[in-house]
Amino acid sequence: MAFYKSSWFKYLKNFIIGAGAAVVMVGALFKIQSWEGGSEMLTAGLLTEAFLFLLLGVLPPEKDYYWEKLYPGLEKYNSNIAPITDGGSATPGLNGEVVEHQLGGMLSELQGMSKSLGSLKALQEVDFSGTSDQVKSMSNFYTSMNEAMSNLSDSLEDTKAYKDQLSALNKNLGSLNSVYGNVLTAMSNISNK
């Protein structure tokens, strides 16, 4: 890359142009007011400007891009813009109002994206450092819950077995009561006779 295309040279060139213009203006002020040193300042500023004009004449110009060649009619506000394609055929163009409308839509989309990025930034700032401990704690809770459910299921089976045993005991007691009633009736019959 040529030195005159480097950013430091462009900065230096702009600085010298600005400083030279400032010296010319101050020199002109001193000259108009007839203050001492005005002629020297004006001479120094004009020599600086002459050097810069010479420098700008020697340096090649910056590359210009002629977009109107690619998009004929671009320089006119209400023209139909149709890009030149490889095949030479042009697609239907857009007028200025349509372009403004599309740019407005793009602006709305960019604002929406900005809000989404803001939400993502807020999510990024959330502290997830204790999350793994919370997940482990929940895992332990669910393990304990499963054990309790299993124990409850076992208790339910024991309760059913107990209920079945109570039913059998009731039947046996009913039979014993019946036998005892028969024995009492028989003894009562014997004592009456």
Topology at a glance:
Layout: H1 7-32, H2 38-58, H3 67-70, H4 96-124, H5 131-192
Helix pairs in contact: 1-2
Low-confidence stretches: none
Net shape: rod-shaped
Total count of strands: 0
Q: Structural class, please?
A: mainly alpha
Strand content: under 5%
Helix content: over 70%
Q: What number is the mean pLDDT?
A: 80
Distance between the termini: 142 Å
Helices, by number, come to: 5
Taking the sheet with the most strands, its summary is: none
Instruction: State Rg.
Output: 51 Å
Sequence of secondary-structure elements: HHHHH
Structure description:
Helix content is 74%, strand content 0%. The longest helix has 62 residues, at 131-192. By secondary structure, the protein is mainly α. The mean pLDDT is 80. It has 5 helices and no strands. Among the domains are: 3-58; 71-111, no CATH class; 157-193.
